[in-house]
């Protein structure tokens, strides 16, 4: 039996002994539990950079996806004022921010040294820095959010404040969740190949069950830019 989960410490520990392998999105405090569980079954991690822990990984191309998104905003829309929203203590967000900065620099656009707002899903999504910039009239022309789940509440916040997206500010996400199609406006994003990532993880788990001593494998799959109304493209 293969299992996938959110990566909470409790759920991982409780799964040990009841499944043959785990494919999970690990939480920031799951390392110790994963080390214990991996002695009993193979594990594949999603969304965390390669490390020395011996786990297989299936990752999305965060850098490539962000590069394509930022290039679209700069070259197709002529935007030269961009801010990043997302906390860098999240590994995926950090990779995306680094690519965000590198791409802007490569395109000859001034790149911020840090995110405009370090909001994090699961905490109080107050968007304090975004609201402050809005009040002070210093809001960038585009806000590049580290995930769709950060971008979608931001659309609601701007609607409540009477800020028009994309006329007043462009908002983009990353991940490609279904809710982005239904938002108002629909969300421009970078879609991760979740189905392909799941299939790859299942294959790695089955291979690991047959060869438990195999070296850890890291597979990084390509992403796809999905342009919609929130950046000013046709919905």
Describe this structure in words.
This protein has 235 residues and is α/β, with parallel strands linked by helices. Helix content is 38%, strand content 16%. The chain has eight helices and ten strands. A five-stranded parallel beta sheet has the order 1-2-3-4-9, sandwiched between helices. Helix 2 links the parallel strand 2 and strand 3. It starts with a strand and ends in a 9-residue tail after the last strand. Residues 1-17 have low confidence and may be disordered.
Q: Which strand order spans the largest sheet, edge to edge or round the barrel?
A: 1-2-3-4-9
Share of helix, binned: 25-40%
Q: Report the portion of residues in β strands.
A: 15-25%
Distance between the termini: 41 Å
Kindly report the average pLDDT value. Answer: 85
Low-confidence stretches: 1-17
Seen as an oligomer or otherwise, the chain set is: single chain
Rounded to an integer, what's the Rg over CA atoms?
19 Å
Q: Which structural class do you get from the secondary structure elements?
A: alpha/beta
Tally of contiguous helical segments: 8
Largest sheet: 5 strands, parallel
Give the CA-based shape.
elongated
How many runs of DSSP E, i.e. beta strands? 10
Order of helices and strands: EHEHEEHEHHEHEHEHEE
Supply the key terms:
alpha/beta; five-stranded parallel beta sheet; three-stranded parallel beta sheet; 8 helices; disordered N terminus
């Amino acid at each position: 039996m293969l299992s996938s989960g959110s990566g909470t410490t409790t759920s991982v520990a409780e799964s040990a002994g009841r499944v043959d392998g785990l494919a999970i999105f690990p939480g920031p405090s799951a390392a110790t539990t994963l080390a214990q569980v991996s002695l009993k079954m193979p594990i594949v991690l999603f969304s965390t950079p390669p490390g020395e822990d011996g786990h297989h990984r299936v990752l999305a191309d965060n850098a490539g996806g962000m590069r394509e998104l930022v290039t679209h905003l700069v070259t197709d829309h002529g935007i030269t004022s961009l801010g990043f929203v997302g906390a860098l203590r999240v590994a995926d967000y950090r990779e995306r921010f680094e690519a965000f900065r590198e791409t802007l620099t490569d395109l000859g656009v001034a790149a911020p040294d840090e995110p405009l707002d370090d909001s994090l899903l699961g905490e109080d999504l107050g968007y304090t820095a975004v609201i402050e910039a809005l009040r002070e009239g210093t809001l960038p022309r585009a806000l590049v959010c580290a995930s769709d789940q950060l971008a979608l509440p931001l659309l609601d916040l701007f609607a409540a404040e009477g800020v028009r997206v994309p006329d007043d500010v462009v908002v983009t996400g990353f991940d490609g969740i279904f809710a982005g199609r239904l938002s108002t406006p629909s969300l421009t994003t970078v879609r991760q190949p979740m189905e392909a990532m799941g299939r790859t993880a299942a294959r790695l788990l089955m291979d690991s069950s047959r060869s438990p001593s195999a070296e850890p494998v890291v597979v990084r799959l390509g992403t796809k830019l999905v342009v919609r109304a929130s950046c000013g493209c046709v919905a």
